[in-house]
Amino acid sequence: MKKKILAVCLVLVSICILSSCGPSSVKGKWTDSDKQTLRAELQKQDWSKLGDNKNKFIDCYMSKVEQKYNSINELAKDTEGNTKISTECANQFLAPPPVKKEPEPEPEQEPNETN
């Protein structure tokens, strides 16, 4: 999962370079363009470990980064904060591994005593 989070960080740096022109986002109110760009990049990633929770993860991540950062550019510069948010959202939606239930031992039978 750490490799996946690092990949997201690298994608964000690329987005930072591509989105340096146009209207600016502000904390809590990103431009539609910044939101669409980030969502599109997140959708491209392999989130198979999240299963059906992929979109919930992306919504969680988008909401948290929009509230914390002024723009994609600012987000891309904060690898540590980005990783923390990714981890928080992933932990909310990753299914716990299935618990293997050990078979219960058969009860010991007492020998039949015949007199």
Kindly describe this structure.
This protein has 115 residues and is mainly alpha-helical. The chain has one domain. 57% of the residues lie in helices and 0% in strands. It has helices at 2-18, 32-44, 54-68, 72-77, 79-93. The N and C termini lie far apart (67 Å).
| Structural Rg | 23 Å
Shape, principal axes of CA atoms:
rod-shaped
N→C terminal distance: 67 Å
Strand/helix succession: HHHHH
- What is the number of E strands? 0
Helical segment tally? Answer: 5
* Poorly predicted regions: none
Q: Main sheet?
A: none
SSE-based structural type: mainly alpha
The total domain count is 1
Portion in beta strands: under 5%
Q: Share of helix among residues?
A: 55-70%
**What is the mean pLDDT?**
78
Q: What are the salient characteristics of this protein?
A:
115 residues, mainly alpha, 5 helices, rod-shaped
SSE layout and pairing:
Blueprint: H1 2-18, H2 32-44, H3 54-68, H4 72-77, H5 79-93
Helix pairs in contact: 1-2, 1-5, 2-3, 3-5
Task: Give a brief rundown of this model.
With 115 residues, this protein is mainly alpha-helical. Helix content is 57%, strand content 0%.
